[in-house]
Predict the structure.
Amino acid sequence: MQTDTTPAGVPSGSRVLEHPRREAIRLADVLHALADPMRLRIVCRLAAADGELNCADTELPVSKSTCTHHFRVLREHGVIQQIYRGTAKMNALRRTDLDDLFPGLIDGILRAADLQAERLGNTCPTGHSG
C-alpha cells in the first residue's frame, strides 16, 4: 500500500504518521477496521465530534496500548487521519475520502450502530441514548 508521508497543511519537520493515499484505500480494509467494536466506537465518536479529537477524548474500556493499536489500525486502513499538534496526537475521520470512495458507507454504518444500540438498550456510540 502506498502512503503519504506529509499530509496537507503539516509543516515540514513535524512528526508525521504514514497514511494510505486516498486511491489506495480498499473497501475490504475499511470493513475490516470497522468490524471491531472498539474501533467502531472510535469512528462513531469521531463522526459525532465532526472534527479532531485527542486519543484521550475517546474513552475505551481497554488498556492504553490496546487503544493505541485500535487507532493505528484505523489509520493504516484509511479510516482516520492522525496528526501531531504539539505533543497531542489528534484524530479525525477521513469522511470526505470515504464518502467519495464508498458513497453512503459511513452513513449506513453509523445508522446501523445507532439502531443496534437502540435495539440492545445501550447508549449509542454516536452519543444518542437508546
